[in-house]
User: Fold this.
Amino acid sequence: MSNKINRLLLTGAAGGLGKVLRPRMSAMANSVRVSDVAELGAAAACEELVRCDLGDYDGMLALLDGVDSVVHLGGMSTDGPFEPILNANIRGVYNLYEGARIQGVKRILFASSNHVVGFHKQSDRLDATAAMRPDGNYGVSKAFGESLSSFYFDRFGIETVCMRIGSSFPKPIDHRMLSTWLSYDDLTELIRCALFAPSVGHTIVYAASDNQPAWWDNRYAGRLGWTPKDTSEPFRAEIEATVPRLDPTDPAVLYQGGQFVKLGPFPAN
Assistant:
């Protein structure tokens, strides 16, 4: 690929990570189409703003017109009742991939989640072949997205990097995040690598910085050429001194999904 993509679509641009990544995308593309269902503010010089509900098929089809690659952050980012997750994360990701097929989009970076494997134990070390064990409606929706993207690669040749994001915040804030934390700079570099690698096929990558203890093994994502540079270690002493440890028998300590394994059940309506 060239040094810059012609037109890149960033969905979920008004969300937490979207706001962080939005100004960084201009280094990777000549034109950045930014989208969200929420207000997007003013456009930067290289930006095109398009408000769109992921559950709107026709809107998504138009959103993908003329797009070369997609960084898909859009959707519900926490666990909760099924209906909102159905629209944004299940119907929405179907609309994304079917729209990409029709509009000729060649590559998608899908913001998946560690919650796809949340019911594996924290003592386990997982690679991309580990069985999906989602820890809630949100995790199930991301497992659906990974499966759908696999199908669209096998059947239609749309390449996808499924980024199983750990905990991407300015710094880790608890003991679990000492293993799951992903710095903004490491996430940005992962996106750059995933966009410009010559071939990615269908790749699952655990998106975490170089933390210890490490729960995840990225041996099968080597084609991306991504090596995280940051680590949670500089924050360890502060967390150890200020954050109380949970009971070791608490499911949030036993399982990789943390507190997500204890959420719900949620009302049907």
Remarks:
- The CA atoms of residues 69 and 83 lie 28 Å apart.
- Helices lie at 16-21, 57-63, 82-103, 137-156, 177-180, 184-196, 236-242, 251-254.
- The beta strands are 5-11, 29-36, 47-51, 69-72, 107-113, 159-165, 202-207.
